[in-house]
Amino acid sequence: MGEQTILEALVLGILEGLTEFLPVSSTGHILLAGHFMGFESTGKVFEIVIQLGAILAIVMLYFSRLLNLAVTLPSSERSRHFVTGILLAFLPAAVIGVLAHDFIKTVLFETPMVICVALIVGGVVLLFVDRLVKAPRYDDVMDYPLWLCLAIGFFQCLAMIPGTSRSGSTIVGSLLLGADKRSAAEFSFFLAMPTMTGAVAYDLFKNRDVLSGADTSIIAVGFIAAFIVAALVVKALLAYVSRYGYGLFGWWRIMVGAAGLAGLLLVG
Question: In whole numbers, what is the pLDDT of the chain averaged over residues?
Fold first, then answer.
């Protein structure tokens, strides 16, 4: 493991932290960047595990709220309703993720063309949904009805295709089903906690026999970089989407996807 690999891991960790909670597909970005940089990780574990660094940033920023949920869970029906909704939303991805894990990691993760197309298509969808004139019916994640949570969970499953975006899928689903823009982003944050924790744990288990000490060092660099950068991004994102919506991210997805397609056609 050389300095170049450490530098690549640092760059990819920063990219993960910048994009994890934006509806632009962090996995798509780091897989494309890794492809053109020539970065190879054992079993593509690096690309999954560093996402947990970004998730820990959310846990830190929402710690007081999460602690309040834990304390009030036995006595508050509203807290129990919210936790139940998050678990319901997590369920579809948990089931499909386990069943399709090998196909996702060995086929979809290894097909940059799929990632580029998913980025472009998702960008067009995001632009369309962002411009829909629709009065929101739900503006507080604590009060999302359970059917809405489960439906958002099925939307999240679209993100099994790298380049689609987990946050993008859940946000688009939330907006289409009547949520406002800020609470859609916030629900995506909370749903990321069990989803990505489960994905990381399962991926580490599946690859436990092929990882080495060198892999651990590379993952640690990306993990820490993702944590620090994500902590800086999240609050700014909520403030931005509340005021301006998601149009900018739709255009960004289209540009990155188009640039990726051009790069693949020119250099492979």
Answer: 89
